[in-house]
Amino acid sequence: MNQTHRQKVLSIALPMTAASMSIPLLGLVDTAILGHLARAHYLGAVAAGSSVLIMLFWLFAFLRMGSTGLTARAWGAGDDNRCLELLAQSLVLAVLLGLILVIFQAPLLTTVLDLIKPSDEVRILAFEYCQIRIFAAPATLGTLCAMGWLLGLQRAKATLLLVLLTNLTNISLDFLFIVGFDMNSKGAAWASFTAELFGFALALVLVATQLSKMHGSINRAYLWQWHRYRELLGVNRHLFIRTACLVFTMVFFTAQGARQGDSILAANAILMQLLLLVAYTQDGFAHAAESLTGHAIGTNNLDEFYTICKEVTFWGLGISCLATIAYVFFPNTIIAIFTDLPEVATATRLYWPWLTALPLAGLLCFTADGIFIGTGKTRAMQDTMLLAAFGLFLPLWYFSQPLGNHGLWLAYLSFLVIRSLLMGGMFIHYSRQSLWAPNKT
To answer: Do 161 and 17 touch, CB atoms closer than 8 A?
Structure first.
């Protein structure tokens, strides 16, 4: 492996891995603190409430992903003006979409909670949790735009600083509000709300610092010409549908767990947070793939493109293997960290074997997402996700309902496997047909 390419990957992947790991770490801290309170319904409320907001916020995660790939290709082509225009367009969309979420929060939250159907006690607390956090929606979506833009310019250290400080602020406020002020699930909501506002303010500072180093300019009139949003919206349409399918799967999974009782809902939350820890760790290398493969395509350097792909896959495999080993050999130690509630701990141990298979099952889809975003092959991401979610996950869940929560985990494991196989197959297809060039689909 060319050391120059390895250094390029690691220079972005290591900071982004640290940044990405802080995201599930935040969820794990919430889970660990709430899991040691007197009753499971606080943990269930945050699990349900977080699922609602994940559904709403992740629907617009294309603001980050679309910005990264397009900015990386524009930067690779030496077009500073386009880089600046993409930043401005993304922020305009973020503010508009965030305001829509705030204005229509009541019907949106009610609809999604109706889908999840938690117990009455959990539902009341989950609704309260969501109502607090959703007012930060414009800031949350704006931060996503800034992250995507900075990553597209390969400013991984700035992105690390942004994510790390935001999540460390959130974790610190978790201890203050939940433990110090005894605010339970409501404290978790206020901690996240405050941290998200802080994160957006910091994002604007980091973006302004980067803008001072660039020589391009933007015609403000372009921001009101919707035809100039065509490329961004075209990429984002595919990413929106892809993300909507992923969010639907996650919320559906949470809903089915909730209908089996608060203990299973809490156990599934712990297991899912541990899976997300692996996924977000691998995301560091997927983010490197987004930026570096986009830049390679922008400079029309296919040799560098394939080298980057091999490198990020190699590191992703290593992460999956380490996670699998940890989950196989240390289940009791890990479970004890997150809960001392006997009924939740027992349920978590019962379904633990599924967790041990998940890191390797999702390896290729986690890595391929970064490659396909960077190169603009978002239509393939959309189509494979549609097939995995509605062609396999839902039918398999339906026929495995007699297995209860085991059937739910079987369906989710199969969902990750088919996504990995389909994305791997599309990569081979594009390579054999020489379709990675920017003017081909």
So the answer is: no
3-state SS record for 9-78: HHHHHHHHHHHHHHHHHHHHHHHHHHCCCCCCHHHHHHHHHHHHHHHHHHCCCHHHHHHHHHHHHHHHCC
- Tracing tokens 């990675």 back to the chain, one arrives at 436
What ranges do the domains of the chain cover?
3-432
Using CA of residue 388, residue 112, residue 409, residue 314, what is the dihedral sign?
A: positive
How much of the chain is helix, strand and coil, in % rounded to 5?
85, 0, 15
Q: What is the pLDDT along the chain (441 residues), one digit of tens a residue?
A: 555 767 777 777 777 676 655 554 555 566 667 666 655 667 667 767 776 776 777 777 777 777 887 888 888 777 888 888 888 888 988 899 999 999 998 888 888 788 777 777 778 888 888 888 889 889 988 988 898 898 888 887 888 888 888 888 988 888 888 878 877 778 888 888 999 899 999 999 999 998 888 876 776 776 777 667 776 776 778 888 888 888 788 878 888 888 888 788 888 988 988 888 888 788 778 878 888 888 888 788 888 899 999 998 999 899 999 999 999 999 999 998 877 788 888 999 999 999 999 999 988 888 898 899 888 888 899 999 999 999 999 999 999 999 999 999 999 999 999 999 999 999 999 999 888 865 554
Q: Which amino acid type is present at position 439?
A: N
DSSP state at residue 220: G
* Cα torsion 258, 32, 191, 286: sign: negative
pTM of the model: 0.73
- Separation between Cα atoms, residue 272 and residue 294, nearest integer Å: 30
The candidate with the shortest Cα–Cα distance to 412, out of 254, 280, 266, is: 254
Rg (CA), the chain: 21
Which among 91, 68, 56, 238 has a CA at the least distance from the CA of 151?
68
The token pair at 440 is 């081909």
Note whether 245 and 389 are within 8 A (CB).
yes
